[in-house]
Structures are given as C-alpha cells and as structure tokens.
Design goal:
heterodimer; A: Aspartate Aminotransferase, domain 2; 7-stranded mixed β-sheet; 4-stranded antiparallel β-sheet; 14 helices; 40% helix; B: Sufe protein. Chain: A; 4-stranded mixed β-sheet; 5 helices
C-alpha cells in the first residue's frame, strides 16, 4: 500500500491554514516537521489525564506517568532496531545528543595527538562539538572531502583513517544538500580499524528505516521534532558495551544510586545520562509520532519522498536560471538551489509571499557552503504531507522571482 | 504579489543590480565590518570623515540580498556630504520607518528617497537586511570595528 498524501494532509491541522492569503505549501520539513493531530492529542491527553513526575512516586499517577515514559522509550528502541531500551537516552535534540557523546565518550577517549574524523557535509551540530573537543585535547579534526556533486570521497576517507583515529562522526543524510551517505561503508572501514562511528541521523530517521544493529553503528543521534514529534525531545542511541564505560553528562537528581556529602555513585544507563526531570510529555509525544509513522510505513514514506524528489528536481531543472547545489546520485528529501541574479533570501521572501515556506541561508553548514562557493542557498525539503502540486507551486513561485527581478 | 511589488520597488531592484559607491574609499578615516550571523550577509563600510564632522566620502563592499545591497547603496548616496549628527538622525528616522506598524500609513517625513523601504514593514524577517549597512555605518562613525545585527 502506498502513501496517499491527500489523506495524510488531513492528519496535520496546520496544513488546513493559509499563509499570506494562500494555501500553505510547507517545504521546510528538514528544519522541522509539522505535527499530526495524533501527536498533539497524545501530549494534551497526557497532561489532562496522566501527568505526574516520573520515578519513585508511590502513588498511582506517578506510576502511570513512569510507565508511559518508559513505553515511549521502548517505542524508540523498536523504531531504530536497538537491542535494549537502556541504549536509548532521551535528550533535548540531536545537538544535545552529539554533545553528550562528545562529553561522555569523547573526553575520556580522545587525547593529545589523536584524530577525529567528520565529513564535509556536517551540520554545525556534528562539527562544532568535535572541533571544540579536539581543540581542548590537542587532537586533530580530519574532514572527509566531498566531490562537486556533494558525494563523499570514500578513497580519501580510507586514507584519513589511521591508528590515531578515535572516532568517526558522520551525517547519514546531509541537511543542506540532501546527499545520502553510504554509511555502511563508512562504518565497515572504521570498524576494520576498531574505530567507533557516530551517525547524525536527524535527517535520515524521518525519511527511511534506520536499524542500528543492521547498520552496526555505535552512536545514533536524532531529534524528535524532525520526526513529526514535539520540540524539546531527542535521542542518543549508544551501543550497550560502550554505554557502561561512559561518564555522566550532567549530574543531579534522577541519575544517582547513593549520595553522601563526600561522594556519589551513579545509576546505570539510561538514567545515568538523564539528570533532572526530563521532558516526559515530549517523550510521550515522540512515541505517538513513531506510532503514526509506523502506521504509514517507513518504506512507503521513503518511496513517496523519492518520487517527489525526482519530480521536483526535474521541475527545477526546466528553469535555466536555477542551479541545483548537491547533485549526488544518492539523495534524499532535500533540494538546495540558487537562482541566477536573485539572492536566496529574496527567493525565500518572494516564495513566502506566494504561500510557499522554504528555508534560505547556510543551513548551519557554513564550511559546506564555502566548498560550493555560495554564501547561501534556497532549500526545499520534503515531508509525508507534500504532494506534486506543492512542487508545482514551488516552480511557479521561482518563475515569479525571475519575473520580479527581470 | 502586491506586497512583493511594494517590497521590491523598481528603485530597490535598480540599486541591487547597479549598486552606487560599491568601492573602497582611498582617503578613509573610518571603517567597520557588519554581518548578519543568521543569514550570512556581510558588508564593509569605509568613510572619510573631515575634521568638522562631515562625511566627505563613503563606500561599501560585501555581499547580501537585494534589500541589504540596495539599502547600503542608497545609504551612501543619502549621507555623503552630511554632518554626523544629521546622519544619526536619519538612521533613527529610517529605523522607525522600517519597523513601524504596517497597518498604518508610513511616516516618511525626512527620509527622502529612502521611503521606498516602507515595504519592509510587511516582512519583519527582513528588517535586519535593511538596517545592516546603517548599523555598520554607525559603528564606523563611532570608531568600532564590527557591527552585528544580532
């Protein structure tokens, strides 16, 4: 059964509204996905009926809230194919997930003279934490280059791996230009040398099935809000064997075993990494989003977005003034482009005037923009609720930019 | 489309295509770099300030959208030969114009040709594009080296 965007749209109340007097065309899902009614309802139902703080409450409400929170953790576990629920750590977003890995794993495993490898595609969230760690430790950050199409140079990657390499951190799908990275090769080559790999899955988890055991990755980071869930909740998956060696990220309530004035022993994972009252409703909302996507079927989501990407790319290629940035053979969900003679911010504003929401800017990937020698691009990104007519409206609005700036 | 035509007036598009005073200033006495960290627009303003506090020459360089380029270009035309106090007052009037309530008639008193930027009021996300050059000019005149819109 394939995905019917007409039916899916009805699940998203915000898509019933207009923007600047026109039906809203939302092509900014790579920045954040809109929320289905099921997610909105799950959060308000929880606050209205089942809310209390979790853990250690002896009363029924607290036990219910704890159960719902842990059920959500198990939904995430199953969704990414992890073996155990304790491997799923709830954080605020992908950024915090990567910072947690850099702090709790990176700081005790990277020393002076060591090397960390990232790719040229990285979002600042998967670049700056490693860069700062390397600066602090006197380690070196190595960067896998991209070719002119925006595909990673795997030969160069293999040459970068050395006995000093302590970690590889890599996006599975580029948020800025949509490159779908062959992470199986990235992981295999790293594991051949005993190097662990962190995947930034913020753009991949919402777009196709990701199975951490099948991929054999060591860390996987993603945000709930890009997965059609609420803001304020994200996930770091850590392979079990590594989990037990990692130091706490933050300390305080909820993550302890025993505390005296002199010392503290810490709880086991995942609580060890979840100090303080967490975003309980956020986790439950994320669980509802996962239920929603599972019902659509991730294989259907993938096929639907592949069709739209193909269709949209062909439409943009018909406009001679448009140049697509990122033309790798394997791409998912995102088309980035520049329009001759019209700055991306002006493109963004003119499209907004036509009710078409896209993003214009450096997409938190300034080094990648420098690589392609553009200060910024306009980026249209896809979600489950988009259909071909949205891309027709995009192309029409780009023609209007050209008309206005003629 | 009408709101967009209001924003992208012919004068703005003309200054974007052919920016005036898009150059370095040989006899510069003051300069500053400005950038908008959110969108990456960046501008350098150089000026020559005489002993009696008059901007005798001004030029700008950099890259940005049509609104920020046209604003920088028209700003250089508007301030050349004017005393600092008058320029500061014009900046104040300009800022009021682009941030005022779009449902009211714009108050274009004393802004001269810069009234073409009244359309920015409908697009609050673009106010920083219109004011980047002015903030940078202000920093230059005050002896600061950099200006940010954030």
């Amino acid at each position: 059964m394939s995905l019917d965007p007409g039916l899916v749209r009805k699940d998203f109340p915000i898509l019933q509204r207009t923007m600047r007097g026109k039906p809203l065309v939302y092509l900014d899902t790579a920045a954040s996905a809109q929320k289905p009614q099921a997610v909105i309802d799950a959060i308000s139902h929880f606050y209205a009926n089942d809310y209390a703080n979790i853990h250690r409450g002896v009363y029924e409400l607290s036990a219910t809230a704890t159960r719902l929170h842990e059920q959500a953790r198990d939904k995430v576990r199953a969704f990414v194919g992890a073996a155990e629920a304790r491997e799923i750590i709830f954080v605020r977003n992908a950024t915090e997930a990567i910072n947690l890995a850099a702090w709790s794993y990176g700081r005790s495993n990277v020393s002076e003279g060591d090397e960390v490898i990232v790719s040229a595609l990285e979002h600042h969230a998967d670049l700056v934490p490693w860069q700062q760690l390397c600066l602090e430790k006197g380690a070196q950050l190595k960067v896998i280059p991209v070719d002119d199409d925006g595909a990673l140079d795997l030969d160069a990657y293999e040459a970068l791996l050395s006995e000093r390499t302590k970690l590889v951190a890599c996006a599975q799908v580029s948020n800025a230009i949509g490159t779908h990275v062959p992470v199986r090769d990235i992981i295999r080559l790293a594991h051949d040398r005993g190097v662990p790999v962190l995947l930034d899955a913020a753009q991949s988890v919402p777009r196709f099935e990701v199975d951490v055991q099948e991929l054999d990755c060591d860390f996987l980071a993603f945000s709930g809000h890009k997965l059609y869930g609420p803001t304020g909740i994200g996930v770091l998956y850590v392979r079990g064997e590594i989990l037990d060696q990692m130091l706490p990220y933050q300390t305080g309530g909820g993550m302890i075993e025993q505390v005296t004035f002199e010392e503290t022993t810490f709880a086991r994972a995942p609580e060890r990494f979840e100090a303080g009252t967490p975003d309980i409703a956020g986790a439950i909302g994320l669980g509802a989003a996962i239920d929603y996507l599972s019902e659509l079927g991730m294989a259907n989501v993938e096929a639907h977005e592949a069709d739209l990407l193909h269709y949209g790319t062909a439409l943009l290629e018909e406009i001679p003034e448009v140049r697509i940035i990122g033309t790798a053979k394997e791409k998912t969900g995102v088309v980035s482009f520049v329009v001759d003679g019209v700055h991306p911010h002006d493109v963004g504003t003119i499209l907004d005037g036509e009710g078409v929401a896209i993003r214009a800017g450096h997409h938190c990937a300034q080094p990648l923009m420098n690589r392609f020698q553009v200060p910024a691009t306009a980026r249209a990104s896809l979600g489950v609720y988009n259909d071909r007519s949205d891309l027709d409206r995009l192309a029409d609005a780009i023609r209007m930019c050209l008309e206005l700036f003629a | 489309m009408s709101e967009l035509r209001e924003l992208y007036q012919t004068t703005i598009l003309d200054h974007n295509k052919q920016p005036r005073n898009f150059r370095a200033v040989d006899a510069k006495t003051h300069e500053a770099d400005g950038h908008n960290p959110l969108c990456g627009d960046q501008v350098t303003i150089e000026l020559s300030l005489s002993d009696d506090g008059i901007v005798s020459d001004v030029g700008f360089q950099g890259s940005g959208c049509a609104i920020s380029t046209a604003s920088a270009s028209m700003m250089t035309e508007a301030i050349k030969g004017k005393p600092v106090a008058e320029i500061d007052a014009l900046f104040g009037r300009f800022r009021e114009l682009v941030t005022s309530d779009p449902t009211q008639e714009p108050d274009v008193d004393g802004v001269g040709k810069l009234m073409v930027f009244a359309g920015v009021r409908e697009f609050p996300m673009r106010v920083k594009c219109a004011t980047l050059a002015w903030h940078t000019l202000h920093a230059a005149m005050n002896g600061d080296e950099t200006a940010k819109t954030e």
